[in-house]
Write a structure and sequence with these properties.
By secondary structure, this protein is an alpha+beta fold. It is 31% helix and 22% strand.
């Protein structure tokens, strides 16, 4: 199964370090970040899980729930959390899914649907494609998919930046230019006519090109 932006995120039931969940119910009216790992006790992932734990207040204030996934059992996740805290200063303070039957990894297109067996005996190389980030909106639609190789640690500041941009678009129908940061000018989408723009932004907007209009970031 190949997922694309705009698809409904597959719902699932799973055992996590914080009990059993049904994904859509767990999300509720929040945004969500699901990020996956090919195996417990892997070096890059150890640093990533600690980084997300430190950033959890930043996700919380954006109404974003974070959930991790690794193919290994939940009991292993609890043991791994000790190392994560030792390396990064904080253990995971969000749920971690145990995807031992690989069903979620396959449902999200991170492993081929034909993959057989369980996580037992599989190496990180076997699961190297289980290195995705999915941002899911309150409507349960996929808003972003990032795929990382095992040797490259994820930039969670970039993920927060993307969430800010997605939430601005959802609320104000604006887009963000290349390398945009909080507080910088944004782009009016084509869904906003010039007449509507005059009403929405009485202080005016800048026409860079007929198809490129910018305004200060809405509050």
């Amino acid at each position: 199964m190949t997922l694309a932006i705009g698809d409904t995120a597959p719902d699932f039931e799973a055992e996590t370090t914080e009990g059993n969940i049904r994904f859509h119910d767990w999300l509720g009216n929040s945004w969500g970040v699901l990020f996956s790992h090919p195996k417990d006790f892997t070096p890059v992932c150890t640093t990533e899980l600690g980084a997300v734990a430190r950033l959890k207040p930043d996700f919380d204030k954006r109404n974003v729930k974070v959930i991790g996934l690794s193919v290994d059992p939940v009991d292993n996740h609890a043991k791994w959390a000790v190392d994560i805290k030792d390396v990064g200063g904080m253990a995971p303070n969000y749920p971690m899914i145990g995807d031992t039957d690989l069903k979620i990894s396959k449902a999200y297109g991170m492993l081929p649907a034909s993959t057989g067996g369980t996580s037992e005996g599989r190496t990180p190389a076997d699961n190297q494609t289980v290195r995705n980030v999915f941002i899911v909106g309150p409507d349960k639609k996929i808003k972003l998919i990032l795929v990382y190789p095992m040797a490259v640690g994820r930039n969670f500041q970039e993920i927060l930046r993307v969430i800010d941009a997605l939430q601005l678009n959802a609320k104000h129908r604006v887009a963000t230019p290349a390398d945009w940061k909080q507080g910088e000018d944004v782009i009016l989408t084509s869904a906003i006519t010039n007449d509507e723009a005059k009403t929405l932004y009485p202080e005016g907007y800048k026409t860079v090109k007929p198809y490129l209009r910018t305004v200060p970031q809405p509050k």
